[in-house]
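Quick one: structure for this chain?
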Amino acid sequence: MNFRIRYLLLALITIAPLHSQDVNPEDAVLKAFHAISSHDCHAWVEKISSPEFTGRLTGTKGFNDCAAWLSDSLNIWGVSPWGDDGTYLQAFDHQYTLVKPGNYIKLHIPIRKGEIVLNYDYVNEFMPGATSGSGEIMAEVVYVGYGISAPELGFDEYENIDVRGKIVLMEREAPLSPNKDMKKFKKWRKYSFHQYKLENAVKHGAIGMIYNYGPISNPNNSYVPGFIYVHVGDIVVNDIFEGSGRVHEEIVKKIKKNLRPRSFNTRKQVSIKMVTEHVSEATGYNVLGFIEGSDPILKEEVILLGGHLDHLGYCHELIPGANDNASAVAIMMAVARALKSENVVLKRSIGFCFFGAEEQGVVGSKVYLENPPVPLDQTLCLLNMDGVGAGDKLFAMAGKNFPTLWKFIKSANDRYVHRQLKTGYSSNLARPRLDAARFMWANVPTLSFYAYGTPSAYHTPADNMDIITPEIMEDLARIIFMGVVDIANAEQAQFREKIGATSKGDE
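Got it. Here's what it folds into:
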């Protein structure tokens, strides 16, 4: 007998009796629970954040290759496709910008016989504008505070100052915080968006922008051909303020306190070079998987697990996005495999949403909500994860908004894991920074998890495997797994409580 055939027959004889025996549902759950391992989570994060997938900027081949690899994994484990036309992919129109080497920002200081040029360090002192136009400019710098023109609020930082042909220096966000005065902040919210600030600078004739933001990379902004911008930190900002008779920190405090513009011409010359390539027509994807429940009635109710698959690509070096957000993808993979690896009973259905373009405007979750595979009123909740791979403690946003949902998660941790896990309340008024925000606006009960407590990195090349703590991923995967099983099999699972309020506002 052929050796290969003999081997397969022996394997079938060995395996068949195992499937014919009845399995205790509790034993199956515990076996799957203990099969979730930090080793697997670590290996998946390493794969996802490797150069093979080029940083997973949505629209690029690297992102698409990662989505295909993830789809293959779900298929192998028996998770059903839930996307377009029987695939795992939900497509949407998209555009993106590639950042290439050769970028700089320089401060030119005139002296008697020429000038001194300060060259700033990549990553430590500046990061390229991830949707900047390509080109080189040199001009005077005008400080414009938060870059806001809001005549209805009696606040216009471009009033009585000419920025035509110049470079504007501005702050991120708005001079009000949503946590300080929610009602007042709503009037300012639309002015906190990166896109507004850049487009307003263009509208007033500026040729470039120095954005006091990090310095980190962030592809969540508008693209305007020929408009050059860069992200900087305190070193560059303070150098530009030097000799102006003003102190940057004090100016910002005065703007916030009095809500009055403090714009001025710094009389400093800066040159900026950005090397980019913009792709205006591309396709983005969400990767969607589904496990159908066993109960003929309860299976119509769906529990969602979510986390974004994308990251920043190259800017101009690879930004791996190991913690943000390969860690969440790995945890979702661990839960999906565990739910399918044993005879785990799930009366309700489970949906897996690996969102695209979260980093580029939180687009993928918006597309999902506009085209959900099941009606949103059949969606019980979303358990979202973002930045869950670096830390020794866990936090779940909005547990106090949805206390009944939170009880399932807290109970799973208290009974099986015992990791420090806290929660809080979310007003959800600021611009969307998480996929979770869009679901809360759509009245879908949502918890969003992150890890903290150990050194981390955000939107820089240092978000790599060096900062990953595999044990926190194993613990969260186990908490989510047990919480999902308990919710799926609970007699009652209604979480749409009216605790506090959320507001979509203007986008």
